[in-house]
């Protein structure tokens, strides 16, 4: 086969389009061609890219919120932390100095980390935590990625205050696939506790109960005037009439999905999870923890002040949550008063039809920048059920703790409740690199659940012993051949409660082929697959009492965590991991660990 040459100034724009089309759609499959092309383009693009370097000082600071002072862990003394601004193709270098009292890691949510798995960040998976008083440098490349992503702590509840935006713009000489905007504005939804968040998680773990709900939600670190003592702590976006703004919306909350609206205004969605989409017009945005949405926002209303608001999407009403609404202000230039802003008409917090419409109506921008066609030949089929389970009481005498009447909560995937390999002396990725995983993890995560049942039966909690089934604790991975194509049916269950779950896959973006309610049925549901222009994500919000089908190519060697991005659910065990085998050459294999990699 001949070599295809593409002009240098267009190679990054078209290599996924042209070459993926050839290799994915051709009758002949080339086993490692895509990864080779990615590596070659990566090397070529470095000559035209910048090194974006940051120093992150992680330490405790005291801030005033909700009528009180609270000690929090933050980066460089700010909440949210620093925004990383870069261009596609740049290399990011972040020197992390951990001056906090806690061991921690940082995760760069949505970054593929092609051949840089040591920088992915989930503790005990790709690295041991950075000890208090120590440091670690994360280094990774942004080739082939463009849009809104973010970074956050990947240790305990610390991501409640240790997080920030990671914004990737087109490289110089390239443009967005939408009209030029007047200004770009990051909007980060956060979650606030009137407590030490590490203690919140510790108390929940010790008592084997759910953690206390948060006290407030925040917009760019500020709670807004719907909370006590917060009238002067409200985010304000000052705009000019007749302009178009790009809002980069990030759900950095720990546990709740949210609706987002601006009174009397509409949006045009242009990207999700740093992947471009067909333009989708809507008056409401819905996003789960971990997800990002880019929208065009036109200031086409009369000069006045308007509330922007986030309110939770509560897919499981029987589970208590913080059901408050956080507000900010959009103030038109020339507005004479901001005392009575116009309020948005928010959806009901249980409005699943509105949430499902938003999640499923968006399609990918086929042929656009960095588009990857759907791989057609599937090598691995998996059917993964997941949801909450119950566990055994560790200490029945714990005050306000578990009992036979109130058994503790657990969570699982295919009836395996994942446990991080703490105390093993090394991370899962180190064990993989050393080719000695004994005692760290096993390679027997099942492709299907152990038993078949009516997964989404709303009466399952009261009519079957499945409600009290104890999922065994384990650290199991699914091994994937390098460059194999994997299709996963993600099936929600109602063993304890039917709930919408956001599932994040580290190390990969994936095509979302279809979503629906009830139990997945291949005969009925496969004809619904969108193989032409499906949305591409790194975090999928699986419908309450329903399912999603995703597909990706395992061309990134290493160990990659798959987990629910509701912070309570990872400690309970709603996770697993993929072990992707090395490629056929050293250049397509996991490189040696950095010299400053933290030790357990």
Short description:
The chain has 600 residues and is mainly β.
Shape: globular
- Helical fraction: 10-25%
The CATH superfamily of the largest domain is identified as: Cupredoxins -  blue copper proteins
Q: Which class of secondary structure composition applies to the elements?
A: mainly beta
Compute the number of structural domains: 3
Summed over residues and divided by their number, the pLDDT gives a mean of: 89
Tally of individual helices? 8
**β-strand number:** 32
Structural notes for this entry:
The protein is mainly β and 600 residues long. It contains eight helices and 32 strands. The strands form seven sheets. The chain has a six-stranded mixed beta sheet, with no helix packed on it. A hairpin with a 2-residue loop joins strand 14 (267-272) and strand 15.
Topology summary:
Elements: H1 8-25, H2 33-45, E1 51-65, E2 68-75, E3 84-87, E4 91-98, E5 106-109, E6 135-141, E7 147-153, E8 163-169, E9 183-192, H3 197-207, E10 216-219, E11 236-239, E12 244-251, E13 257-262, E14 267-272, E15 275-282, E16 285-287, E17 292-298, E18 305-313, E19 326-332, H4 352-361, E20 380-390, E21 409-413, E22 417-418, H5 428-433, H6 460-463, E23 473-474, E24 477-480, E25 484-492, E26 501-505, E27 510-517, H7 522-525, E28 536-537, E29 539-542, E30 546-554, E31 558-564, H8 569-572, E32 575-580
Parallel strand pairs: 1-4, 3-8, 9-12, 11-19, 20-25, 22-23, 24-32
Antiparallel strand pairs: 1-2, 4-6, 5-7, 7-8, 9-10, 12-17, 13-16, 13-18, 14-15, 14-17, 18-19, 20-21, 25-30, 26-29, 26-31, 27-28, 27-30, 31-32
Helix pairs in contact: 1-2
EC number: 1.10.3.2
Catalytic activity: 4 hydroquinone + O2 = 4 benzosemiquinone + 2 H2O
Cofactor: Cu cation
